[in-house]
């Protein structure tokens, strides 16, 4: 057997771990391997049994020390990961390209992120009622802008403090009369009011679609903001246009008006012609 050796655990306090005196030398390992391969008997069975007993007593000492070192290793690994993350965050504070962009550029990027999804006029199947209701709630609330506002304080100030980002109003009124949204009418109206408030005095671009008897409150809310309409597109039943009658003579900024309705006398309904 080789003489016992020590492994230094802490140079500062001279803590050491004593290696086992039972560690085999090459000749002993070769001897045992030869016996195992030949299946021959061993001349000194008593000595082998004593060695087995000593080994069983020695292994727990190693297990205990390995467990202690594993815990230290895991702690050090976790600490290093935390330090690496902190380092990357600090570098990001100083070097992230997005932080050097002018506010005007960020606003333009956010406008692209907030491009409304297309609506259609086909009836919504019952299997999609809940999905479409949530989709409309997200659209009315300005979902992409809200998501951007939650990234950091700087982006929140930009999204909520830039009226231009809220100047595009797109509504799918089919969703406002679904059984799945009957509970959400007032919430949708509040979200629409909030979007209109956030747009402040910015000219509005409005797109409204919805074939069938749709909820009139949304159109009435938009009519109140008609002095700020810059462009307006309506794809609705002609009866729904009556809810826009209050816009007569209150369209000073209007540049474009598109109406797709089942009537031959749209001008009469709107009283803007």
TrEMBL record:
Limits of the F-box domain: 98-171
Query: Could you tell me what this protein is called?
Result: F-box domain-containing protein
Q: Where does the secretion signal sit in this chain?
A: none
Segments forming a coiled coil: none
């Amino acid at each position: 057997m080789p003489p016992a050796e020590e492994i230094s655990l802490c140079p500062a306090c001279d803590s050491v771990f004593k290696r086992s005196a039972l560690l085999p030398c090459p000749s002993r390992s070769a001897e045992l391997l030869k016996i195992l391969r030949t299946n021959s008997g061993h001349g000194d069975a008593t000595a082998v049994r004593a060695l087995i007993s000593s080994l069983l007593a020695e292994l727990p000492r190693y297990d205990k020390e390995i467990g202690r070192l594993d815990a230290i290793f895991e702690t050090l690994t976790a600490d290093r990961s935390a330090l690496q993350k902190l380092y990357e965050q600090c570098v990001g504070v100083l070097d992230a390209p997005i932080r050097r962009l002018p506010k005007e550029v960020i606003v333009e990027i956010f406008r692209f992120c907030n491009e409304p999804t297309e609506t259609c006029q086909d009836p919504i199947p019952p299997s999609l009622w809940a999905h479409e209701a949530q989709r409309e709630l997200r659209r009315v609330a300005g979902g992409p802008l809200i998501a951007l506002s939650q990234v950091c304080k700087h982006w929140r100030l930009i999204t909520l403090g830039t009226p231009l980002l809220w100047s595009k109003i797109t509504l799918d009124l089919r969703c406002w009369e679904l059984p799945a949204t009957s509970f959400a009418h007032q919430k949708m109206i509040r979200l629409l009011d909030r979007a209109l408030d956030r747009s402040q005095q910015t000219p509005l671009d409005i797109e409204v679609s919805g074939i069938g008897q749709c909820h009139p409150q949304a159109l009435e809310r938009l009519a109140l903001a008609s002095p700020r309409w810059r462009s307006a597109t309506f794809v609705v039943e002609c009866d729904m246009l009556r809810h826009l009658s209050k816009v007569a003579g209150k369209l000073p900024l209007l540049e474009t008006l598109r109406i797709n309705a089942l009537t031959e006398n749209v001008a009469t309904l709107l009283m803007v012609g």
